[in-house]
Amino acid sequence: MATALKSLHLKNVTSNGGYVGRFAPSPSGQMHFGSLVTALGSFLQAKSQNGQWLLRIEDIDPPREVAGASESILRCLEAHHLFWDHDVVYQSDRSDLYNEKIQYLTEQGFTYHCQCSRAHLVSLKFGQACVCADLKLNIKSLNNENSAIRFRHHNIHQGFYDELLGQVNFPKFDIPAQFAIKRKDNLFAYQLAVVVDDIQQGITQVARGADLLGATLFQLALYQAFDRPAPTFLHFPVVVTEPGKKLSKQNHAREINTKDARANLINALGFFGILPTKELQRGSVQNILNWAICEWDLRKIPAKTECIDNRIGHADSI
Ligand code: GLU
User: Fold this and answer.
1) How are beta strands 52-57 and 89-90 bridged, if at all?
2) CA 194 to ligand 1 center in whole angstroms
3) Distance of CA 159 to CAs 110, 167, 206, 236, Å?
4) Which of 134, 223, 272, 310 is found 20 to 30 A from 303 (Cα to Cα)?
5) Which atom of ligand 1 is nearest to 22's Cα?
6) What is the model's pLDDT at position 203?
7) CATH architecture of 95-192
8) Given a cut of 50, is residue 14 above it in pLDDT?
9) Does the pTM exceed 0.85?
10) Alpha-carbon distance 164 to 237, whole Å?
11) Where are the domains of the chain?
């Protein structure tokens, strides 16, 4: 059993040695300016290297899903000529794969069932596991009601190298010794699904918003457990209306108006330190994008975790 699973988990589907990037939105709302910035950044990073840019809809959390959001994200990307390579991958289609990977991690001794409350887990000290880990409860079923399946780090990462921010280190107390890979409500956890998919899709670089910097530590632990090399990581500054206040679906950021695709792109390029000439600004969306692919340069992007939304007259900061 272990051997069969291992060979499955070693299979990459798309990487042929070139750059493979991705955009992986959750359909918990429509695209807003912040998500467009992330989509555009990951697209330009891939296309400036003649790479592939894959699209994965991370729809494994039905309670947080907004009806119609997946479809509207696709239409928004198309309106901005951010065309993806290959078919869209939907995480909701991949439960069997995620269960196989949990099974694999369990066979390798990385998992345990846990019924602890969030408050208890937060109160634990660095490196301290919850009582359930010590009880070494056997996982008899992957669908055990009222308990989460947690991953226990054997080797806790405290930092990693980011292609924009350089070495990023986290204070010890910010790093829990365990994290959920399947939640108490039986839904797969983001950390598991994202790593399984990034491996399976042959992603060579994860380019995304800096709000996910901390998640990278958990994901690195999973790459190690799967015995797979991690991709490189590139975290763009997130768009904030004021320090610490990110534009997000939860904060009801205004939905992108696809009729303003050209203006949206120009604004988003401004975040990456790229400003098209006045003449180009009057050109087509495709011309602006083609030009931006040539102009793309990580050294022009502020090496920061957040940038204030400096669009003139935008409603998100009101
Ligand atoms: N689905 C996540 C989100 O929308 C992003 C995952 C990732 O890029 O790793 O925030």
Assistant:
1) parallel
2) 8
3) 21, 7, 16, 17
4) 223
5) 8
6) 98
7) 3-Layer(aba) Sandwich (3.40)
8) no
9) yes
10) 9
11) 20-93+201-317, 95-192
